[in-house]
Q: What sequence folds into this?
């Protein structure tokens, strides 16, 4: 599969690119700054041992599946010019509406969630799936690290959600269907709670696990 | 400790009363209908093997620690007349702002969360701790059932939160500090997600577990 990572030069994009490239997908790292994405792609190609491409966010948006990895504050302006390119595409929204510096306090954005705002910004034409809000970018980029938490996945397009659940399995994690896109509000809101717990219990990358689903495979 | 359960004749109240009574606490089940609470208390006293009292919600509110177990739609009107009685008290808010019949879709109430609305309804004078949103009332009332999930606890009053964490341990569960009261929004919003998963995966009482805290004891 061709997978594009919008804002893919950050920490989340790095881990996703490495793990999906190793699983056999063709990756395009996108950035506002194409030269930066190309440099990042060259470096990650070396780590992954397979070719990873880089370009502007438009190049990433041209892929079959597109993951949005930008900070919340940049989401609306990043997506606006990509409306046509993303129409009909499976768009994985990882964005969490954190309000720095208070990243351990829940903040619900005006649109209900970052994912619902992305849906609006793309005129409802993309197949948005919200996921990967609770994944430690540090652990994700460490290919030797076994991921402990589940990935909760919300979306209104059932076939798109199934494809994303498969891609999550290839990251080495268990995906769990969390319901319609409106439920992304809950998933996004759990990130500041986990960041609070990291601080309180002196951990890195605490995650969520659904208790009672132990027999369900990744 | 004296623990009062406002709206304690429902399923959640039943399990809390049984487990806390067995742990040695003095329980007062409260209801709008005192006769109904007294009948419920008599029945539960037999099950628990210790005396459980019943009365109106005012009798429950007179206890040292008070748990609010009413449905969301009844919270504001139930708390209003109890303002004076609850001033300075530790109030455990279990209320989840579900929107029946769509209980598997997240809905954020106007006040941000049921717990923040309770804080407002009580003029900011109670020591509110939001907790126990993800506990299956079926499993809780079954004294033989080992509880699998964690209990996430949010509140602005640190000593009150510590006392509630202790009470949760006595229910047979692990309590985890989830941060300030504003984070109750996330905890409440996860309940419709878990209800969705129960339906999707054909389970009863799925819960949440924090991954990466396995070495932290209940």
A:
């Amino acid at each position: 599969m061709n997978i594009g990572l919008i804002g893919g030069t950050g920490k989340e994009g790095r881990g996703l690119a490495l793990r999906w490239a190793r699983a056999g997908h063709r990756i395009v790292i996108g950035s506002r700054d194409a030269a930066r994405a190309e440099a990042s792609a060259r470096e990650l190609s070396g780590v992954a041992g397979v070719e990873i491409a880089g370009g502007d966010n438009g190049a990433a948006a041209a892929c079959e599946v597109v993951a949005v990895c930008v900070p919340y504050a940049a989401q609306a302006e990043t997506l606006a010019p990509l409306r046509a390119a993303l129409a009909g595409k499976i768009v994985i929204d990882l964005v969490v509406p954190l309000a720095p510096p208070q990243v351990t306090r829940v903040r619900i954005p005006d649109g209900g969630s970052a994912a619902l705002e992305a849906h609006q910004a793309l005129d409802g034409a993309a197949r948005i799936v919200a996921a990967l809000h609770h994944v430690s970018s540090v652990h994700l980029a460490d290919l030797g690290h076994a991921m402990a938490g589940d990935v909760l996945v919300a979306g209104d397009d059932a076939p798109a959600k199934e494809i994303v659940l498969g891609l999550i399995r290839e990251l080495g994690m268990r995906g769990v269907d969390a319901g319609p896109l409106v439920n992304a509000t809950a998933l996004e809101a759990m990130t500041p709670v986990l960041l609070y717990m990291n601080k309180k219990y002196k951990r890195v990358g605490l995650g969520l696990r659904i208790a009672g689903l132990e027999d369900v495979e990744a």
Summary: The mean pLDDT of chain A is 96. The interface with chain B takes residues 104-106, 108, 112, 148-150, 152, 154, 176-180, 182-183, 185-187, 189-190, 192-194, 196-197, 200-201, 203, 205-213, 216 of chain A (CB under 8 Å).
